[in-house]
Write a structure and sequence with these properties.
136 residues; mainly beta; Jelly Rolls; 4-stranded antiparallel beta sheet; 40% strand; globular; ASPH
Length: 136
């Protein structure tokens, strides 16, 4: 829906985009107009392991909003740094994806989350303005 800060074709997801553009977390908003911002649906198939990796910078936070979770929630998890968590229905998960993280779905069902990036709450508005003027 948003790739490198640019809105893509969103007619199918107009309500989702409206929600996201009004969303705030610790006064941080959705990243648009900057190449570090992404919004997409992430589907992890059964018996899938996404190996440890990290995002490009700590200027943003990544948010996961569960859409569809396996019945056995203990079989599907994310590990960020040294902390392992499972997704809970109706609860957003916010983390700094510049830390090493991995995902495993050892269940027999797929996992779907809405992923979107927000500005790191420690950034000043003037810093965000600069980042939007000179995309990374």
């Amino acid at each position: 829906m948003i790739k490198e800060g640019v809105k893509q074709e969103t007619k199918l997801f107009e309500n989702t985009i409206k929600f996201l553009t009004s969303f705030t977390y610790q006064s941080s908003k959705l990243i648009t107009d900057c190449s570090i911002g992404y919004t997409y649906f992430s589907t992890i198939e059964p018996k899938t392991h996404i190996l440890p990796h990290c995002g490009p910078c700590n200027l943003k936070l990544r948010v996961h909003l569960p859409i569809s979770l396996p019945q056995d929630d203990s079989a599907c998890w994310i590990s960020v740094g040294n902390e392992r968590k499972t997704w809970k229905e109706g609860e957003m998960m916010v983390f700094d994806d510049s830390f090493v993280h991995e995902v495993k779905n050892d269940s027999s069902e797929e996992r779907v989350v809405l992923v979107f990036d927000i500005w790191h709450p420690d950034l000043f508005p003037s810093e965000i303005e600069q980042l939007q003027q000179f995309p990374l």
